[in-house]
Amino acid sequence: MPVRLAPWINDIATRLQCPPDYPAITVMTALGAVVGRKIGIKPQMKTDWLEIPNVWGAFIGPPGMLKSPAMNEALRPIHRLEAEATRNTEIARQAFAAGLDAFRLRKQVATALARERLKKTLQGEKHIGKIDLELGKQPQEPVPVRYHTNDTTYQALAELIANNPTGILVERDELVSLLRHLDRHDQAVARGFFLTGWSGTQPYTFDRITRGTRHIGAVCISVLGNSQPARIAEYVKRVNTNDTGGDGLLQRFGLMAWPDTHPDWKDVDRNPDSRAREDAWKVFDRLSNLDTRGAIALGARRGPSDSVPFFRLSAAAHDDFLNWRSDLERRLRSGEMAPALEGHLAKYRKLVPALALINYLVDNGQDEISQQAMRKALAFSKYLETHASRLYGASSEPERTAAQAILTKVREGELQDGFTAREVHQHDWSGLTDREQLQAGLDLLVELNYLAASSAATSERGGRPTTTYAANPRSVL
Fold first, then answer.
1. How far is Cα 87 from Cα 89, in angstroms, rounded to an integer?
2. List of E strands, 193-266
3. Do β-strands 204-208 and 212-216 pair in parallel, antiparallel, or remain unpaired?
4. Beta strands in 62-128 (DSSP E)
5. What is the pLDDT of residue 200?
6. Gap between the Cα atoms of 221 and 81, Å rounded
7. What sign results for the dihedral spanned by CA atoms 276, 220, 248, 431?
8. Residue 359 above 70 pLDDT?
9. What is the rounded average pLDDT of the residues 12-25?
10. Is 37 helix (H, G, I), strand (E, B) or coil?
């Protein structure tokens, strides 16, 4: 983590007794949204390859592990920026309303005087001279400054981005609900809009009969969410059933972590580290106020054909990046990885430069991206890769969860020998409400010899046989 953020992230994790991954991913995603298209990074020394630091982040944890409180605590700076922007917008709107009234009054007076002059001229009266009433420019309605949204249609999101070209953060407490929504056939256009917004560089044009044409120079979207292991594992299994890896929606969540839950817990009842929090909030304030002139003052460059100012890597940082990328490209071309994981790691071409840029801006870097900022990004990507492997290897997680729940009920005496899948489902026990997952859990227990299955006809006339289950005596010990 950047030096100016690490103490605050550690303080949040310590006070909430949650994995530091939760606030760390939240903070880095939020900062990427705040910077957005204000400044970019060109990872190569000469080409125009440009990356924008908007990143997609998510973290996974069991229910009750304080995922939402950790995310809310780490998002407090961006929520404060949003509240301040709302207040400033309201003040600007009041000034706009007053200015517009004054403008309309001046216009009415000017119109009345012009009519009077014309009337007297037509009546043959002496010319009364030219009336010069300066109206000035008509006041323009202020555009609301926004930093994030929680729930919106893609059309409304497009309007937000058109008015806030730096970009916007889409914050969802339960990530899978957003993913499933975008999976629907009637949301294909919305899905495409999100896919476009991941890069932060692609234009998008709406052509509507009633609303006409609406062009966005570059769609820049950051996404942040969290999920439970069983829900995300079931989603991964479903979208990857054809072994193609999907269209890359899930793979765009480069900042994805699935940390283990530490078994130890202690009550931490102390005040927040005010100095660490103040330092972190100052970072958000500083980067929210960054503009093109400020970026140039930091040493960023901008040529005639560049849409945003950009940094390049120092020589040492470039050497480290090139070594890492050379290894990555060989692995991606080896054909040894599953398509889903391969697609995920391919997106690290954007993630690593974006993280290096965020690291550098947070710690007051100037001129060129330092080797330290790049090495931190590379170390983070190495850590995140282990979590990506866990994610895409978790397709059997729903079966394991269901199997564990069934075995618990057997050991508690809730299920006696000769029980059926239908009987288990009727109890509506937690983790055993989905028929498909329930059956998969039973099959796994039979495969592992925890249960024995037997089938018999339901009547003397035959019919569909009923499968009953009995526990291996060793499984109830």
1. 5
2. 204-208, 212-216, 221-227, 255-257
3. antiparallel
4. none
5. 92
6. 18
7. positive
8. yes
9. 95
10. helix
Partnered with residue 301 across adjacent β-strands are: 310
Beta strands at 466-471 and 451-456: parallel, antiparallel or unpaired: antiparallel
The model's pLDDT over 42-54, given as tens digits with 9 standing for 90+, comes to: 999 999 999 999 9
Domains of the chain: 6-85+143-392 (3.40.50.300), 397-476 (1.10.10.10)
Q: For residue 66, what are its two tokens? A: 């304080």
Token pair, residue 107, equals 């216009």
Cut 0.85: pTM above it: no
What the block records as the tokens of 113 is 């005087």
Question: In the predicted model, what is the mean pLDDT of the chain?
Answer: 87
| 232/298 Cα distance (integer angstroms) | 41
**CA-CA distance, 74 to 59, in Å (whole number)?**
13
140-149, 150-159, 238-247, 369-378: segment of lowest average pLDDT: 238-247
Give the residue from 475, 413, 415 showing the smallest Cα distance to 444.
475
Structure tokens at 240: 């990857």
**Quick one: which of 15, 29, 13 has its CA closest to 380?**
29
Q: Is 350 helix (H, G, I), strand (E, B) or coil?
A: helix
Which amino acid type is present at position 314? Answer: S
Q: How many CB atoms lie within 10 A of CB 417?
A: 11
Residue type, 362: V
User: What digits encode the pLDDT tens for the residues 197-239?
Assistant: 999 999 988 877 666 788 899 999 999 999 988 888 888 877 7
With a CB cutoff of 8 Å and minimum separation 6, the contacts of 234 are: 397, 398, 437
Q: Distance (Å, rounded) from C-alpha 86 to C-alpha 81?
A: 9
Q: Which two tokens stand for residue 92?
A: 């600007």
Taking alpha carbons only, the member of 236, 266, 166, 163 closest to residue 391 is: 236
Query: If you average pLDDT over residues 270-277, what whole number do you get?
Result: 92
Backbone dihedral angles phi then psi of residue 452, each to the nearest 5 degrees: -115, 135
The answer to whether residues 56 and 224 touch, using CB atoms and an 8 Å cutoff, is yes
Q: Among candidates 248, 35, 67, 226, which has minimal Cα distance to 147? A: 35
Tokens standing for 223?
């996404």
